[in-house]
């Protein structure tokens, strides 16, 4: 019997999925505060995509295979293991109402247009980083085999600089945690943008190999040339696969599987981190590849096939309805569970029209990656990998303390749990719905992997949306001493525009659904 964990609460929730051969730690930062953050009007990065993903996971019934774990937010000490003290202090201090006092620091730390200042910026960083570090800790303790944090994967952030919509590099922090227990860690990046922040952090070490498959040329961030192979002890431990517009499933598989297989054979990592940026999908607002969900998911499936601890993270993705589709599908791959192509009814159902399907169809754009080009890139990468002398080892030392531990209150609650009394939320979070067991629940009938719509909605309600235009929704903020954030949802039909503002009502709906099903609520 094996497990997978996921995460959400005020900081998010972590769910433990049980499989026959692989245990998985799934960290899904969607139902907590992560969906409330808002980069600003017109900004392509929409944290609300995480809540949409979580909503699909709930309504597909995947949450029934999850045990919930609640990690802490990453603290100042966690973040300064990679980032500079000055930069983290700046992120702690900056707010929209005091920006004028930090003009010079904003220029110094590259905070402004691409990486704007918004309400709750530092807490947003804490949530993203906390999930990735907590997943790494669980992997180190062998409490799971695969960990997923769709709220992480922000691979552009540098030691003392924000970049590419990323403020803190949760990936680097997670890898540093994994290095406490594992001699070698492999990082694989399938975002359409080069994983420059992670590569830069480990450019001179032989303990971390970075492998990035990305669009190269006049494209952000402009790095990731085939000739960028690392420096010093890290020479040949940076692997860059520069690709061209129109990359399709077949072509991607022909370069991904051979390169990763060779890397596994040569580097022999003790743990793997996979950044699953969804902007490499067909139709992404900022992307120019032509991958389907199945083509993107094959990368997850392939790395999952190796008997090595795996930390799966989110990343880019700016057509947010497709981001939710992608990460839901890849969660099902991690669970080794098939889900139907027909989307179940959910809070965002109308935004997945007009087909209301899970999978998307690639476009007819031209693939500029010719077979000759792919073969030439592959041969050059193999030549570089042959230069590696051997898989490096490290000196034996005492294992450092874990970055995140259960606080004393949580430990006491677990130890003193009385099974004869009403169980706590923490205990109910650990309840797993087995496929071969019966559960007496008001919402049990017709809900699952082949789910009917949840709650009071019937299948007729699903079909009633198919011919209706998408509509704007506005909910007033709550009155009283503790006002709730205003809900403004506006998603346009155009594939070029995908706008979604944060909304308090979605959190209540999703939290209620989770609580009613004895999973996680906060």
From TrEMBL:
Residues 496-508 have a biased composition (Basic and acidic residues). The keyword Hydrolase applies. Residues 43-332 form the Histone deacetylase domain. It is an enzyme of class 3 (hydrolase). One of its GO terms (cellular component) is NuRD complex. One of its GO terms (biological process) is heterochromatin formation. Pfam families: Hist_deacetyl (PF00850). Residues 512-522 have a biased composition (Polar residues). This is histone deacetylase. It comes from Mesocestoides corti. The lineage of its organism: Eukaryota, Metazoa, Spiralia, Lophotrochozoa, Platyhelminthes.
